[in-house]
Amino acid sequence: MSLKSKVKLGVVGIGGMGSSHLRYLTQMDTVEVVGVCDVVREKADKAAAQYQTKAYYSHTEMFDQSGIEAILIAVPHYDHTTISIEAFQRGIHVLCEKPIAVHVNDAKRTIEAYEQAKETYPELIFGIMFQERTYPFHKKIKDILEGGELGKLIRATWINTKWFRSQLYYDSGDWRATWAGEGGGILTNQCPHNLDLYQWLFGLPSKINGFAHIGKYHDIEVEDEVTGYFEHENGMVGHFIVTTAETPGSNRMEIVGEYGKLIFEDNKLVFYRTRESSIDFIKNSDSRMGNLENWYTEIPVNVNQPTGHRVVTEKFIAAIQNGGGDLIAHGPEGINGLTLANAIMLSSFNERAVRLPIDGDEYEAKLKELIQSSKYKKPVKQDGSMDISFSQA
């Protein structure tokens, strides 16, 4: 493919996220939006008229008729798997909204289908929409950790409760906050980015204790308040605290290492740098309680750089045009954060610690049991539109 050729792309799922993606996709000179697809015909028709493209009402119809080379998937979560797999089998590049799937077994099926398809289509690209990896502060934290300034990591605590949602939000669609429609609550919908960032920064833990509260503050059948406790092979412990019920919420990350503490909060990154290793100080100090001298440093971060969904998509399109290349997040990486989510819930359901890798069959069976035994009913209230700018601060 010529570097100047536009990639023929289709968007499936014209809800809040799909509509948001279309706004910048139609401004990109490397993309030709050749189709939009939604099972709700009115949504597809409206988007097609607005962006002067063709409406489709099933992804199969779009695959058959539009001539697309790539697809951006923004449908409810269970359908990520089936649509991705069919696209791979046809040699269509995939950029999938988070999460990669609802449970790890479906994620494995997706990844296996991708690997098999690459035998026929070796330049096939699979990306996932983890745009929070592009945020300047997250990138700086990653840089500091990889640079080793903190030394051996001791603790990582992330309190992220800036996910407030009203009952109206949950009532705005019959699929929302149900086991059958969404497959989970805050861990499945709001926090895949946070879970991805956790594993991106610290790797996967070896053992997880999860505490998930089902419908504690909302009339829903899935989790709206969660605490996860993680133990890593290197001795580091992690805490992950999230909810959709706090306002004002907090977004505070503390990362403690032998050479001090890094704190990220309110768009400020502070490093309390100790003059020597705390591990050595514990062993050798002649003081019973004296603290190490530490220096307060506010880390400079260049916030004037491109971020967000468009950056992820631009990398994806460039990789297609170049026959390969770096992505913000390669699709198979999506299983890592999903593993954290499934493990937290499995631990909570069973009221015991879970070791990784988890038993995917056990979790899938539990999910099916929850779906089959559900007696949850809710009225659906259409709230018009959804402004995703309030989704996360």
Architecture overview:
GO terms for molecular function: nucleotide binding. This is Gfo/Idh/MocA family oxidoreductase. Helix content is 35%, strand content 22%. The radius of gyration is 22 Å and the shape is globular. The chain folds into two domains: 7-130 and 307-330, 3-Layer(aba) Sandwich (Rossmann fold); 132-303 and 337-373, Dihydrodipicolinate Reductase, domain 2 (2-Layer Sandwich), CATH 3.30.360. It is an alpha/beta fold.
Overall radius of gyration: 22 Å
Assess the beta-strand content as a share of residues: 15-25%
Low-pLDDT sequence parts: 383-390
Strand order of the largest sheet: 14-13-12-11-7-10-9-8-15
Task: Estimate percent helicity.
Answer: 25-40%
Indicate the CATH class of the largest domain. Alpha Beta
Assign an overall shape.
globular
For the secondary structure, the number of strands is 15
CATH fold naming of the largest domain: Dihydrodipicolinate Reductase, domain 2
Give the H and E element order: EHEHEHEHEHEHEHHEEEEEEHEHHEH
Give the N-to-C terminal Cα separation: 39 Å
Give average pLDDT, whole number.
95
Q: Structural class of the helix and strand makeup?
A: alpha/beta
Number of helices: 12
Report on the biggest sheet. Answer: 9 strands, mixed
Q: What is the CATH superfamily label of the largest domain?
A: Dihydrodipicolinate Reductase, domain 2
Total domains, how many? 2
Write the layout of secondary structure elements.
Blueprint: E1 7-12, H1 16-25, E2 31-37, H2 41-51, E3 55-56, H3 59-65, E4 70-73, H4 78-89, E5 93-96, H5 104-120, E6 126-128, H6 136-147, E7 153-160, H7 167-170, H8 192-202, E8 207-214, E9 223-231, E10 237-243, E11 251-257, E12 260-265, E13 268-274, H9 278-284, E14 294-298, H10 309-322, H11 334-350, E15 354-355, H12 360-373
Parallel strand pairs: 1-2, 1-4, 2-3, 4-5, 5-6, 7-10
Antiparallel strand pairs: 7-11, 8-9, 8-15, 9-10, 11-12, 12-13, 13-14
